[in-house]
Amino acid sequence: MEREVYVIGHKNPDCDSVVSAIALAHLKQQEGYNCVPGILSDINNETKYLLKRFGFDIPKMLYSARCMLKDIEHDNAILVSKDITMKEALDKSLSMKNKGVIVIDDDRHLLGVVSMSDLTSLWTFDEEVLGKLMSKVKFANIVKTLKGKIYYENPSFKTSGNIQLLPSLTNSMTIGKDSIVIVGNNPDVQRSIIANGASLIIIAGEDWIDGVTLELARQHGVSVIYAPFSAMKVSQLIFQSTSIEEIMSHDVISFKANEYVEDVVAKMAKTRFRMYPLLDEDDRVIGSISRYHLFNYAKKRFILVDHNEYAQSIKDLEYGEVVEIVDHHRLGGIETSVPINVISMRVGSCASIIAKMYFDQNVELSSAMAGILLGAIISDTLCLKSPTSTELDRKVADELSAIAEVNIDELAKAMIEANDSILKKSYLDLLYSDFKEFRQDGKKFAIGQCSCRFYEDYKQIKEGFKHYLQEVCMHQDYDLILYMFTDPLGKGSYFLSVGKYAHIIDEGFDNIDEMGFVKDVISRKQQVLPIIVSLLKE
Questions:
Q1: DSSP single-letter state for residue 34
Q2: Model confidence pLDDT, tens digit, residues 327-376
Q3: Nearest 10 degrees: CA dihedral of 174, 180, 185, 188?
């Protein structure tokens, strides 16, 4: 399946932003794209009501455009227990063209790593190191590695780790106690080895041992197996019967799946390993990564709706890829490395543009989808009373109303009633319920807006909320914050402004009364933002 494209609205999403993301993602899905709607923070009660009424789930929450390790491709690592032999580990690595194996316990927790160099450098070890490794080898591992046939196994098998190749009897022969001896089918040699206290006889050649010799081995506790290889081949293979527990690296650098790629690149640059275990949130191994994955990964892709400025978009957008924009605001400077589709129209609601896209492409609208699109238009245009409303908004709203079989005024009234009183919200929730940040000539400013049904509510929180805005302005280095308490019936807005450029609000809006009310001003986009931008340029 094609990788996901996230359709997202702006930070502090309003109804139009959320619905536009849902509707455009659905439209793109009909065109064969793997699009997923997303939100950047919690949605307001008006939007929750609308989605619930028409049967839609709240979109997925997205926090950053940066990719985590879980978002990019990684290798399906070879996961093994600590008890397997070096030969098994090497065979697995070679069969999968992998860089080594990752050792885990029964719960998939990381125990260690065995690299290809660990597995292939065995024959460069000196005799003392090989002897120490073989002194810990298990009888079962020897049998497994040599594809052996057991004639007799001493339940208390142990070995010194000394390996001797003795195909014939010689006068200079010295058999160390508890040695492992590789022999041919010579009963005299076999009996001499038994008498000298070896721990294991490996017969290479014919699959045969006489009964007298075998009984003698039992009496002396000497294990006997047959290996279907030449004596020389056995002498090479047997060293691979060591358990990987003896050679694995315990000091392993691993990464969590929820770490960001750029952070991992910085950490990996300080190391020289070829493979790194990848762990989930419960520290279970889920795969492995290498430098290749970090320098060849696909960025997250986004379609932006109802905004087109970095300050209003998802965190770290510069690390993602914007592939399309559908908006009805001023163009705010997002740059792309390749040409993209941009649909920008001067209308009252982004939902109007997206509904028009459905109509233009002859894609059927369900009554539920028509319902939420209608609700978004109602919300963003104050039931088509906002000066931003256009004939297109009205025409689209009428068509959606007919499809959804919903009365516009009835839905508008229900959505207004679904909104909590501003008195029930914390200052934090109130500020960020619909809050947009802008940049102009090096100045940082923001305009927030909420629906306020009663003057008494505004009067009650005015002083406390203004003090809160002053703190936000100071701690977050805003030059200006303007907050609009807008009458849902479109009569106007109460203005609260703070910051070193707060005075420009009085300059730009000479009809502000003593209560801070500005008659007929209800549109941030069309009636407020252009004036502020113009004054900040002066």
A1: -
A2: 999 887 788 888 999 999 999 999 999 999 999 999 999 999 999 999 99
A3: 40
The amino acid sitting at 401 is: S
Tell me the whole-structure pTM to 2 decimals: 0.74
Among 405, 352, 345, 344, smallest CA distance to 379 is for 352
CA atoms within 13 A of residue 147's CA, in its CB half-sphere: 7
Identify the residue with better confidence: 22 or 77: 22
Instruction: Please report, to the nearest 10 degrees, the dihedral formed by the alpha carbons of residues 516, 517, 523, 525 taken in order.
Output: -20
Angle, CA 366 vertex, CA 360 and CA 370 arms, to 5°: 70
User: Amino acid identity, residue 180?
Assistant: I
In the chain, the amino acid numbered 139 is F
Helix (H, G, I), strand (E, B) or coil at 148: coil
Provide the pLDDT for residue 296.
Answer: 82
| Residues 463 and 470 sit within 8 Å (Cβ to Cβ) | no
Instruction: Give the position of tokens 């069969």.
Output: 95
pLDDT, one tens digit per residue, over 414-434 is: 998 888 789 988 999 899 888
CA 79 to CA 22: how far, in whole Å? Answer: 40
Residue 245: the pLDDT is 93
Q: Which of 165, 145, 164, 161 is nearest to 241 (CA)?
A: 145
469-497 per-position pLDDT tens digit: 999 999 999 999 999 999 988 899 999 99
What's the CA gap between 63 and 315, in Å, rounded?
A: 7
Do 152 and 218 meet the contact criterion of CB atoms below 8 Å apart? yes
Q: Is 133 helix (H, G, I), strand (E, B) or coil?
A: helix
Half-sphere exposure of 28 (CA within 13 A, CB side): 22
Task: Give me the pLDDT at residue 174, please.
Answer: 80
Q: Give the position of tokens 């297109």.
A: 392
